């Protein structure tokens, strides 16, 4: 199975989402340590609890945005052939 333009776009999208989520978690943990004088483990735990919902919403929105492409309907559907690549991208976003 070769990598198409759609597959590359999906990979870039997933890398960007994971990178952003990691940066936000670290930023929230550092702010907790600095502003509220929390120990590192407590700051990380609080950052994870605070950021879980936005991370989940971003991941689900990106996953659902790929469903029309995977089904093959909508604008740009003629650009890809019927293959498993879009479903692979959608299922991989569940694991990230």
Structural summary, described in words:
- With 96 residues, the protein is mostly helical.
- The protein has helices at residues 5-36, 40-65, 67-71, 85-95.
- The model has no long low-confidence stretch (mean pLDDT 80).
- Helix content is 77%, strand content 0%.
- The chain starts with a helix and ends with a helix.
Task: Name the structural class.
Answer: mainly alpha
How many beta-strand segments? 0
Shape: elongated
Overall pLDDT score: 80
Cα-based radius of gyration, to the nearest Å? 17 Å
Measured between the Cα atoms of the first and last residue, the distance is 22 Å
Determine the strand fraction and express it as a percent band: under 5%
Topology summary:
Blueprint: H1 5-36, H2 40-65, H3 67-71, H4 85-95
Concise structural overview:
This protein has 96 residues and is mainly α. The chain has helices spanning 5-36, 40-65, 67-71, 85-95.
Give the key terms.
0% strand; 77% helix; mainly alpha; 96 residues
